């Protein structure tokens, strides 16, 4: 059933305070801090625990599967207890899971990873909903860009310091895995007072917003989220191997991966300057997807130009990540609907992302090279351009009446008429 935005949406805030931005960025810092250091520590983990390489792969894939399984339930839980309260509980669970993962037990390694990954999934879904609820529509892009930048910076820092930290502290890699606990505790302390006035939507007698599975716009948002995630996790997992196969040294390949992440962060930070005040991002999303496809094409056709490939991959990937998260806030009619759309988009998205690196590895083993894998990535990112064009339209999932927007930074009520027929 379609519903107008005015029936479910609270008045948009007039401004966004510094304290709220800091609180949002602290949550963003926790969405990758406990995850990205695992890859660099994996050789030490396997050597210390005796895990086979296949189990090491499971450890790396477990967070993505946890995201996919957990995300659809976040909206209902937030509806019943309130998004800020649930966010506080997820931060506490993240801290607990981080501690459990560092205990001297292989079972705890996997159990703690599962717990903290589920907690991160809650944060992934809740943050777009909280941004939609508490940030003015004209500032959603800027705040989303900031939180993606912080998320990426912390992820890069975690990757960089994990191995040196493991060699410098008692407990080795186990202690190194626990450093993110500091970030989680700080975020928890900041959000505890903000949760006190959080009123659950269930107390108003409303029902939770269902996931918009019958909405084509929601599927476009979901597939765009999934394909950009697939591209990112594929680059992180396989770019050094691809460059090494083409003759680059292992050290050089590692620096290329670092360079790619720096370019992506710069693109994410600069995106609001390009899209300021605009609700329609069709061409930006399509163009960014084409850039990613071009980066993979350069890796395939011109292996002597890895810097150009990383520039294209980083520029397109950074923009696509911000847009994928922003669409989850902008394409729904209110905070409850944002949580439902984000749950669907991230469930579908991370299932796609989890399958991508595995599929490319299988293709590499079957063909003995990276040509087939890179051709597939070019095709998938060309398809992402189509999904991004659709997801970038100034439309709302389930909106009922058609009304033209009156300016570049119109609010949700004015945009409710950019209808989608479901």
TrEMBL record:
Keyword set includes S-adenosyl-L-methionine: no
Record flagged with keyword Membrane: yes
GO MF annotation, one: transmembrane transporter activity
Residue intervals passing through the bilayer: 12-31, 51-74, 86-103, 109-131, 143-165, 177-195, 216-240, 252-271, 283-300, 306-327, 339-363, 369-389
Listed InterPro entries: MFS, MFS_Cyanate_Porter, MFS_trans_sf
SUPFAM superfamilies: MFS general substrate transporter
Keywords: Membrane, Transmembrane, Transmembrane helix
Protein name: Putative transmembrane transport protein
């Amino acid at each position: 059933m379609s519903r107008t935005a005015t029936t479910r949406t609270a008045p948009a805030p007039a401004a966004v305070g510094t304290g709220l931005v800091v609180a949002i960025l602290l949550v963003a810092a926790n969405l990758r801090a406990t995850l990205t250091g695992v890859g660099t520590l994996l050789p030490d983990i396997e050597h210390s625990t005796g895990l086979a390489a296949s189990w090491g792969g499971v450890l790396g894939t477990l967070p993505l599967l946890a995201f996919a399984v957990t995300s659809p339930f976040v909206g209902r839980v937030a509806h019943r207890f309130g998004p800020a309260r649930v966010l506080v509980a997820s931060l506490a669970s993240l801290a607990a899971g981080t501690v459990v993962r560092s205990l001297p037990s292989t079972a705890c390694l996997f159990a703690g990873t599962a717990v903290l990954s589920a907690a991160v999934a809650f944060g992934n879904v809740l943050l777009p909903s909280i941004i939609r609820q508490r940030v003015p529509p004209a500032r959603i892009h800027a705040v989303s860009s900031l939180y993606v930048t912080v998320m990426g910076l912390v992820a890069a820092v975690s990757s960089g310091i994990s191995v040196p930290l493991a060699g410098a502290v008692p407990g080795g890699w186990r202690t190194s895995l626990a450093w993110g606990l500091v970030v989680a505790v700080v975020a928890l302390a900041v959000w505890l007072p903000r949760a006190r006035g959080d009123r659950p939507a269930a107390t108003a007698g409303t029902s939770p917003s269902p996931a918009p599975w019958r909405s084509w716009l929601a599927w476009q948002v979901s597939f765009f989220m999934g394909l950009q995630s697939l591209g990112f996790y594929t680059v992180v997992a396989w770019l050094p191997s691809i460059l090494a196969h083409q003759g680059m040294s292992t050290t050089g390949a590692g620096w290329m991966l670092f360079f790619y992440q720096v370019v992506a962060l710069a693109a994410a930070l600069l995106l609001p300057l390009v899209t300021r005040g605009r609700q329609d991002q069709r061409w930006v999303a399509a163009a960014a997807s084409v850039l990613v496809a071009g980066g993979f094409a350069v890796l395939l056709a011109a292996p002597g130009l890895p810097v150009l490939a990383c520039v294209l991959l980083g520029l397109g990937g950074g923009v696509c990540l911000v847009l994928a998260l922003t669409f989850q806030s902008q394409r729904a009619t209110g905070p409850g609907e944002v949580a439902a759309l984000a749950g669907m988009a991230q469930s579908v998205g991370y299932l796609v992302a989890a399958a991508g690196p595995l599929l490319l590895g299988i293709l590499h083993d079957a063909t003995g090279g990276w040509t087939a894998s890179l051709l597939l990535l070019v095709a998938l990112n060309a398809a992402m351009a189509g999904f991004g064009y659709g997801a970038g339209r100034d439309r709302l999932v389930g909106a009922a009446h058609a009304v033209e927007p009156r300016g570049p930074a119109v609010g949700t009520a004015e945009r409710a008429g950019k209808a989608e027929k479901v």
